[in-house]
# Entry
Amino acid sequence: MRTRLSFQSFRWVKPLGLAALIVSAVLGGVAPAGAAAPLVKTQAPGYFRFMLGDFEITALSDGTVDLPVDKLLHGMTPDQLQHALAKSYLKTPLETSVNAYLINTGSKLILIDAGAGKLFGPTLGFLVANLEASGYKPDQVDEIYITHLHPDHVGGLVAGDKPVFPNAILRADQKEADYWLSATNLAQAPADSKGFFQGAMASVNPYIAAGRFKAFSGSGELSPGIAALATSGHTPGHTSYVVTSQGHELIVLGDLIHVGAVQFGKPAITIGFDSDPKSALAERLKVFNAAAKDGDLVAGAHLAFPGVGHLRVLSQGYEWLPVNYTVIR
Ligand SMILES: [Zn+2]
# Structure
């Protein structure tokens, strides 16, 4: 009965639709009565949640930033770069995600990286808004693990000179802290790099002053199910984090990769932000190969949000397999 009805209405709607088109053409394309809805022009709340064994992982967006990747990437000609971007329907400047990851282990709430806060322009700094949209409050965060002290990863730790996460212990590699929090290194840095040191100091020092900063050295477990993995090269103490629950593994890469559309296919391409590009490349290959071999999930701070997926080794480079959409049951 239902089928018959819809077939009949189809037969009637078709000529009516044609008549409406003719009338509309005669009237010179005047739209039918009724105003169009105004454009909303906001994005959906920037969080994506999935389970990793017993752990609940929430990818949090801090926003995006337009990167002049033509000026930043090293190891390819401008033509090669345009071609690589065009293959993914992208161009420079490239709108690039800044992501952080919140892990609820069931006994602790741990945030990996904190976004840019006010340090990287008005298109970033939305981490707390998205954390709240996702159902948590900043004062619930127990620990924060930082991949490295660049401004787009630590700026969100503070609002002015106050910690945004008042109950959290802040952790980063000792070498990273020694490098970026050093007054001597700041004094010796070229004028256009001083901001990196100042940003790191402004973001971390309030936690040090509150007795809430605790450095670690190299690889090792920081809390049950979450281990630091030393991956220095992008910065002197760059750290990735391996999250494990019930045999499932997620590697939070930090900045082992910046431009997925280029560097998955050509992992030898480095970026101007790398302090030691050779080591950055070696760590990228090491971690990518291990993740591909073991079938681990990886999460990248600058891969298109939520930046979570699997890797497959190809004859040249890697294939990126973004994670399947899921609802939490
Ligand atoms: Zn970064």
Notes: The two ends are 36 Å apart (CA to CA). DSSP finds ten helices and 17 strands in the chain. The first strand starts at residue 47 and ends at 52. The longest helix spans residues 2-26.
